[in-house]
Amino acid sequence: MKFKPALALFLAATAAVAQVPPSIGQGPGYHDPRSPFKPLEERSDIVSWKLLSQVTAKAEKKKIVPTFPAAVQALDRKTIKVQGFMMPLEAGDKQQHFLLSSVPTTCSFCVPAGPEGLVEVRTKKAVRYTLEPVVVEGVLAVLNDDPYGLYYRVDDGNAVN
Question: For a tag site, which of 14, 52, 98, 102 has the least CB within 10 Å?
Fold first, then answer.
């Protein structure tokens, strides 16, 4: 799989942030009430961030190793829907490779969540970038040893209205 340098740099920063424990009142899916964006509402037809964020991680031989609960492992290689906020990884207003975040991005240089709150997405057709939440349907991969420190990836995705 070929990655662009910007993705490598972004994901390295994400991995570094993942090693720092969140402050009280923050963490996966935390929504700052001062934010102008509304948090995502739970929907029964979409895999929840609450479930995805149940992953735990421990340091082993100079790397972070995730441990996924059985409910998350059961989603591996299944077609799912996930909702989140787009973080572009390509130039332009249409994206086929981007990250979905459990919380809105308020700074283009900040990582809004750790790897438990991010899903890498590759879509069949380009999706127009928006600040509003998007829903993507595709095949979920639960990643045990991703070189960039990600825990989840959706392949063959399609944007869903």
Answer: 14
